Amino acid sequence: MSRFRQAISEGDGISVVPVLLGDVEDLAALAEEAGAEAVAVEPADVGRVRASTSLAVLVRGGDPGEASASGADAWIVPFAEDAEHLVLRARDLDLDCAVEVRDEESLEEALERIDPDIILISERGLDEDEEDLERTLDLLADVPAGKLVISEARVIAREQVVALENAGVDAILVGVELLRASPDFGSALAELTGR
User: Fold this and answer.
1) CA-to-CA distance for 80 and 100, rounded, in angstroms?
2) Distance (Å, rounded) from C-alpha 92 to C-alpha 75?
3) How far apart are the C-alpha atoms of 89 and 63, rounded to whole Å?
4) Residue 11 exposed, middle or buried by CB count within 10 Å (0-12, 13-18, 19+)
5) CA gap 162, 192 in Å, rounded
6) pLDDT confidence of residue 179
7) N or C terminus: fewer CB in 10 A for the chain?
């Protein structure tokens, strides 16, 4: 089992994976202390993160070659027309792929065409009538057993983490809302992880 998949599938409860921006070295060290299982960064920041933490690293952006060359463990693949080709290339480079879906149609197509091990349900760009966690909870019912599920939802409270865990989500990708909501990143993250 690869390093990222192992990080989010083993251990107690749901894994918290913060998205790091800015001073990624210090934030990665704080994330590890706070109980994060992995971190997410831009491909250009992987080397700096590796210098300060042993956590698994997920990247968004670039292509599979860039993600692999950066030293990342996993890569977010937006579901699109060329997703199947990109996932095959990433797998050849020993990268875990979290295939990003946003609706029933893209989830169904991703499962049919790619059969990914990791599904990332993105709640970015919610419609005005959608509530936080709604998209994740709606799509989760259509994810077959045995798949790992990451929710990219606007999570800022432990109660939300517990709700996602109880629903069967394996990990949450915590965005910059966490950084904005609290001046103390480490404490805010520790609260989400339950430390």
Assistant:
1) 9
2) 13
3) 9
4) exposed
5) 9
6) 61
7) N
Instruction: Domain count for the chain, please give it.
Output: 1
Predicted pLDDT of residue 48 = 94
Residue 18: give the domain boundaries. Answer: 3-193
Residue range 40-55, pLDDT digits in tens: 999 999 999 999 999 9
Q: Where are the alpha helices (DSSP H) in the chain?
A: 3-9, 24-33, 46-50, 64-70, 83-92, 104-113, 134-140, 158-167, 177-181, 185-193
pLDDT digits (tens, 9 = 90+) for 142-179: 999 999 999 998 888 899 999 999 999 999 999 866 66
CATH of residue 142's domain is 3.20.20.70
Of 123, 64, 116, which Cα lies nearest the Cα of 90? 64
User: Residue 37 has what pLDDT?
Assistant: 93
Q: What is the pTM of this model?
A: 0.92
